[in-house]
Amino acid sequence: MGVDLGGTNVRAGVLTQAGELLAPPVQNPSRAQEGFEVTLEQILLTLEQAIEGSGVSRDAIGAIGMAVPGHIDSAQGVVRWAPNFGYTRADGVFEAWRDIPLAAAVESRLNISVVMGNDANLAALGEYYYGSGRGTARGLVMITLGTGIGGGVVLTREQIQGNADWKGGVLLVGFSGGAGELGHVIIAFNGPRCGCGAQGCVEAFARRDAIVELARELMRRHPNSLLHQLAHGDPANITPALVSEAYAQGDPLAAHIWEQIGAYLGVAIANYIHIFNPEVVAIGGQIAKAGKPLFEAIHRTVRAYAIPTLLEGCRIVPAERIEDAGILGGGALAWQKVAP
Ligand SMILES: [Zn+2]
Predict the structure, then answer these.
(1) Do the two domains 2-123+324-338 and 135-320 of this chain adopt the same fold?
(2) Is 0.70 surpassed by the pTM of this model?
(3) Pairing of strands 315-318, 280-284
(4) Which residues surround ligand 1, an ion (CB under 5 A)?
């Protein structure tokens, strides 16, 4: 089973080793800010409903893989820190999850073994096995473009020198589970402040709100643009989807916005290529739906910044499994546990 635990909803589905969901995913509110016990019950409810809806018996479930946004210690099954989850104390201070033994809590209630990982990391693992990686790519780096920029790195035996006993792809998690923070690769010295506290991270330039901010500023400077017209002159109406609509209608200003965002992402991707030399770079998340203008700018920039021999044969593509990425990633991790 794969579980996608989000700040709004918890979703779950039963899937085959080929990544096919047996039934549409089941979804319930995660009630993320009402304390751990409440959220735990929501997770359990969703799992029970998903098992029931799948038509398979509970004994047939080999393992549960959970994708959780935050710093996850997979080896211990502990959520080290998850800023979207927690509760508000009596004095009004929000206390986020710290060191929550989530895997053991679910395991003890369902009697099915539970593995978990960071949601963006697992999205990369799911995309490796069930999307553009096809389970065979020699390395895959994935970024997920949305409110923030998440990332994950899947390495293979072919990318390691020396003795490595790996079959298929394995996720880079680092010594404490925090690796793969690809959104916080720094692309500008002294750049804008990022939510993580650093400066000049690619996330600070290309997260959803940064795209909206850039579009608003350009719209103000170009009152005759189609974007200005589509937004009825009101900056509050600007969304990434509206920029895409203006682009589709031939607005050069919209083209310029995606060109700029693609350039930021391209510089970051050149860095990933230099470090990991992956066969596939997959780009997911809702913002990736901007499509052609964004990807053309990314390709152009990567060609200008990456070492040509490392770029040879490397495919930079839209993720094929943008929807249900967390469930598929959790499922891929669960399958690794039961069928390594
Ligand atoms: Zn950052």
Answers:
(1) yes
(2) yes
(3) parallel
(4) 184, 194, 196, 198, 201
